[in-house]
Structures are given as C-alpha cells and as structure tokens.
Amino acid sequence: MTLTVSMTVNGKAVSRDVEPRTLLVHLLREHLGLTGTHVGCDTSQCGACVVHVDGRSVKSCTMLAAQADGASVTTIEGLAAADGTLHPMQEAFRNNHGLQCGFCTPGMVMSAVDLVRTNPDPSEHEVRTWLEGNICRCTGYHNIVKAVLEAARTMRQPAAAE
Amino acid sequence: MYAFDYTRPASVADAVAALRSAEDGKLLAGGMTLLATMKQRLAQPSHLIDLRAVPGLSGIARDGATLTIGATTTHAAVADSGEVRAAIPALAHLASQIGDAQVRNCGTIGGSVANDDPTADYPAAVLGLGATVVTDRRRIAADDYFQGLFETALEEDEVITAVSFPVPARAGYAKFPNPASRYAVVGVFVAAVGGAVRVAVTGAGQSGVFRVAAMEQALAASFTPEAIADIAVPAGGLNGDIHASAEYRAHLVGVMARRAVAAAIG
Ligand SMILES: Cc1cc2nc3c(=O)[nH]c(=O)nc-3n(C[C@H](O)[C@H](O)[C@H](O)COP(=O)(O)OP(=O)(O)OC[C@H]3O[C@@H](n4cnc5c(N)ncnc54)[C@H](O)[C@@H]3O)c2cc1C
Ligand code: FES
Ligand code: FES
Description:
- The complex is a heterodimer.
- Chain A starts with a strand and ends in a 6-residue tail after the last helix.
- Helix content of chain A is 32%, strand content 15%.
- The longest helix of chain A has 15 residues, at 142-156.
- Chain A has a 5-stranded mixed sheet with strand order 2-1-5-3-4, with helices on both faces.
- In chain A, helix 2 crosses helix 5 (142-156) and helix 3 (105-118) crosses helix 5.
- Chain A has helices at residues 24-31, 88-95, 105-118, 124-130, 142-156, and strands spanning 3-9, 12-18, 50-53, 56-59, 72-74.
- Chain A is of the alpha+beta class.
- Chain A has 5 helices and 5 strands; from the N terminus they run ββαβββαααα.
- Chain A folds into 2 domains: 3-78, Ubiquitin-like (UB roll) (Roll), CATH 3.10.20.30; 88-156, [2Fe-2S]-binding domain (DNA polymerase, domain 1, Orthogonal Bundle), CATH 1.10.150.120.
- In chain B, the strands form 4 sheets. In chain B, strands 4-5-10-6-7 form a 5-stranded antiparallel sheet. Chain B has a 4-stranded antiparallel sheet with strand order 11-12-13-14, sandwiched between helices. Chain B has a 3-stranded parallel sheet with strand order 1-3-2, covered by helices on one side.
- The termini of chain B are far apart.
- Among the domains of chain B are: 1-53, 2-Layer Sandwich (Uridine Diphospho-n-acetylenolpyruvylglucosamine Reductase, domain 2); 170-265, 2-Layer Sandwich (Enolase-like, domain 1), CATH 3.30.390.
- Bound molecules: flavin-adenine dinucleotide and FE2/S2 (inorganic) cluster (FES) (2 copies).
- One FE2/S2 (inorganic) cluster binds next to loops of chain A.
C-alpha cells in the first residue's frame, strides 16, 4: 500500500508517496534530505528526533508520516531566519556551550522552544523537568539548562537583546 | 516495523466497521504505545485505523458534577485544561506527570485506558474516582472495566469514545516514578467522591490496578494521612523486578497513599 502525504515543512508545501509504515523522521531525513533531525534510540525515549507538528513538540520517530498529513512541520533547519540569523534558542546554546558532540542538540533545541512557548519564564527546575524526554550523553545538562534559561530571557525581551 | 495498511475513518461507526473487516486491525490514537511496540516488532497489526480524523472524540466538557474527557484528548490538553484544574486538580496533576512533554503532546486518555498498562497513571484515576468508560456501544463502570494485565472489558471491535469522571469532594495523586521511563513504580489515587472514599493503586499489582479496602474504610472515618499510617499492604500479589522488590512496593503504597491524602486536603 502507498499513500500520498502532503504537508508544509519549514514553510514549504511538500507531497510524497510513502508506505504507511514510513515514520515522520524517515520522511524528513530520507525523502526530504533534512538530516538535522536525528534518531538516537528505538524506544521513543531519547528525544533526538523532536520536531514541531502544528507548533507542538513531538517525537518524529514515533509518528507516522501519514499522521502528519495536512500538518505544518518545523524542523531544526526551519528555525533560523531566512538570512541565517540563528533563533535565540540556537544562539543561547552557542553562547553557553550547551552542546558537545551535538547529536542531541536539534531535539533539545526544538523541545526547549516548545517549553518557552508554553512557559515563557520557566524556573531552572521547570527546564530540567521539561527536558525529561531529551537525553544527552555528553554535557551533563548543566549548560543546556543555562542556555534555555538565557534564551527564555531573550525571547521575553527581544528588543533588549539587540 | 512490519508493513500494514492504513485508514483514517471519518466517524466512530466507520472505525468500528474497519476494525471488523480487518484481519488484525488496531486503532491508532497517539501511537505512544502502539507505534513504539510495532517499532520493536512486538506487534504486527494488518491495519492501523487512525482515530485522528474522527470528529467529536477530542475535548473536555463539564456538566454539573460530571467531567467528560474525549478519548483522543491528549495528556497535555488534560494537564493544561482550566476546566480539569478547577473540577479535579488531581487529574490535571496526574496527566502532567505522564512520561515527558512530547509523550504528553501525542498520547491520549483513550489509548492509555484501552492499553491498561499495569504501570500507567490513568487507570489509577479512572478506578480511584469510580469513572465510567464510554464506548461506541455502552458505558462501563471502572470497577468492571479493568480485568488484569493489559486486560479490559473492551470487545475486539469496541471503541472508547470518552471517559466520564464524577467531580469529587477532594482527590489526590502521588506517584513514585521510574526515573528512566516515568511510568509508576507505585502510584496511588485517593478520592472522596459520591459520599465514599476510594483508593486505587497502579504500578504495584501483578494483575494491574487495584483498590485498597482497608485504607478506604479508615479514610472514610477520618480523611487524614495519619488515619492510614498503620495500614500495611501485603507484598503477596505485588510486582517485584529490577526496579523494586514486592516488599519495597508494598512499603511505597503506604507512603504514596499518605502523600496522596495530604495532597487532597492540602
Ligand atoms: C517514553 C514514554 C514514556 C511514557 N511514560 C508514561 C507514564 O509515565 N505514564 C503513563 O501512564 N504512560 C506513559 N507512557 C504511555 C503513554 O501515556 C501513551 O500515550 C498511552 O499509554 C497510550 O496512548 P496513545 O494515545 O499513545 O495510544 P496508542 O499507542 O495509539 O494506542 C494504545 C492502544 O490502545 C488502543 N486504543 C487507542 N485508542 C483507543 C480507543 N479510543 N478505543 C479503543 N482502543 C484504543 C490501540 O489500538 C492500542 O492497542 C509513555 C510512553 C512513552 C513512549
Ligand atoms: S529517536 Fe529517540 S525518541 Fe525518537
Ligand atoms: S551533546 Fe552529545 S549527546 Fe548531547
């Protein structure tokens, strides 16, 4: 069985023929060449694959491409501005050395952006709790948490950050 | 993942018909359990019947003393709902403690209640509040619904459409989460509801969620943590695994029950 799925990915309309079992992450990586979204586990636990579907963070390794039919999807490639200016969350990860090998980073960043959407002024504890579903083998999380807190501050006061 | 056919029915009746005509069809809600299991090749359904496009299955409505939550309402929607927080804050709290943010953005109450994982959170609230599981064909009382490990009263072709909760005088939930998965090592839901007290335990029982009559009686006389301080739950019939022995779980039932009562009266 083949299905045609259509969705908006990083602002562009796309349409592809896929098998029902095609996961959203495979559509993104293999059909669309968007390899910024990673796969780090097969148990839906690591969060390397987090993208936004209709504005909410989801694990693209545990969603069928067919379930995202008609949706608007944003991946790490879609976060920076058209002129290449990094999103405040990406900038904060850079400032705070919030990554080492970088494997978990796309998922961390996408998850953290969703946190700030739902909670613009999170406490350190709330950041740590929210990132429950994102596993990092390298950093020990400390600088990731610092980065998210800094980005939340910047995103609350965009003018002050200029 | 093995190959399967995929359909997206537009009504509950079509979903039931699709289940009936498929060789081994499965409903797909949030996919947080089903797709995860299929990726491990532990399940091989012939058809997935996606409930996403069925109108009217998602949403939260209060009608007097009843709060009804549609089957495909996500854990995040329940956790963030002002209606749920006002009517049954313990239920919003329970939903906010499930898995992680991304699991809560996809996972649904219907999927959780249908799956009846012995370490899942919602079964404790459904049994602890004496809720009603509403399906395409009938209403099932919580006491009749849960029938053991991953076993429920649902027929093969039955679709949960909603869960109806009575609004309690007070209720509380406390869980000791597995630090890796966040599922309950032990979770206890207590409620003073409809003139009675109910205590339901998840995570601990070898045959799934269960009630603790001795605690219910003691709390009916005095709804305080002290009232149940001396009630020991026997370790026989409880799970023992690498995360916790049966004896440790028995101890945790007491601790979580007292915390749940404290939360309910706090
Ligand atoms: C990393 C991770 C952590 C988790 N942690 C927790 C936790 O801490 N606590 C917890 O309780 N759960 C946890 N879960 C499970 C999660 O809550 C699931 O969302 C839930 O168990 C299933 O809901 P679903 O909507 O995803 O269902 P699906 O996976 O889509 O379906 C599950 C089962 O229910 C059936 N089904 C679905 N909807 C209906 C319906 N309306 N009528 C009849 N049958 C139906 C399906 O056919 C399938 O058999 C976790 C999951 C993951 C991946
Ligand atoms: S790849 Fe690990 S959660 Fe998706
Ligand atoms: S930076 Fe290496 S896994 Fe997080």
